[in-house]
Amino acid sequence: MSLLSADGVTRIYGSGCEACRDRTGDAAGTNQCPACGSVVACADVDLDLQPREVLGIVGESGSGKSSLAELLALEPNQDGHVHGSVEYANHPGNLLDVDYETRHALRNGHISLVHQHIRDGLDLDFSGGGNVAEKLLASGWRNYEDVRERVASLFEETEIPVERMDDPTHTYSGGMQRRVQIARALAINPEIVVLDEPTTGLDVSVQARVLDMFRRIQREEDVAAIVVSHDLGVVRLLADRTLVMRHGRVIESGLTDRVLEDPHHEYTQTLINSAI
Ligand SMILES: Nc1ncnc2c1ncn2[C@@H]1O[C@H](COP(=O)(O)OP(=O)(O)OP(=O)(O)O)[C@@H](O)[C@H]1O
């Protein structure tokens, strides 16, 4: 049984009209409806995530990856009209319809998002440890010593110097800040982590170390992940299966090796060729 499955997930920014779906997408060559001007960020997306699996979502900027990832990760950003359903094995009903309290509980106990932009995920004036502790407190941890011990062990696990725990996060390097985000996401022992562009703003050598660290923890802890990236190298390293998005639609999917070695869609071939 799938851990998470999406059926027909659609997100439209703007008023929307009857022509929106037909006049956008891969064949239309745009995600903007020519009739009403709305942006069809993603439409008719079906996917499933198995326990312990890493699913990659790849596509160029604007293809709809973040809009989809936010829905899967129950982010509070509710912009746009949303249709379809997301089923999660450990909670009945459609995740897209849950109320505020349920959303909060799921985000603090089951499904974590690592934001593309560090500022969206961390308070840079807080200490690094404080950013991780905040997530533990939100999920019900209360004892000060227990929280500090857990934060220190998460720092070790994500390879951040524990002695920097009380320093303000803005004094950390970009790589360390990304690690704090990952530590924060893992703090609640989630079943699913959604990583949105995990390499944004990092040097190539730092990127590789952060991705290796995440892959190690993902395997050790048997956590499932959805990794969103414009970078084929990221999905090649992390993802078992990959979906390719363009103009808000999934245009190709399969085992990552197959998609990268034997792409069926012309656009995927172009993506791969332009990455070489
Ligand atoms: N709040 C919003 N209001 C209106 N349009 C939006 C909003 N958020 C995103 N969009 C539009 O939706 C489309 C998909 O954006 P999205 O950020 O999901 O793509 P992406 O593939 O994640 O791109 P990137 O990698 O650059 O973040 C884009 O055309 C974008 O301009």
UniProtKB/TrEMBL annotation:
The lineage of its organism: Archaea, Methanobacteriati, Methanobacteriota, Stenosarchaea group, Halobacteria. The keyword Transport does not apply. This is ABC transporter ATP-binding protein. Pfam families: ABC_tran. GO terms for molecular function: ATP binding; ATP hydrolysis activity. Keywords: ATP-binding, Nucleotide-binding. It comes from the Archaea. Residues 22-272 form the ABC transporter domain. InterPro entries: AAA+_ATPase, ABC_transporter-like_ATP-bd, ABC_transporter-like_CS, P-loop_NTPase, PhnK. Signal peptide: none annotated. One of its GO terms (biological process) is organic phosphonate catabolic process.
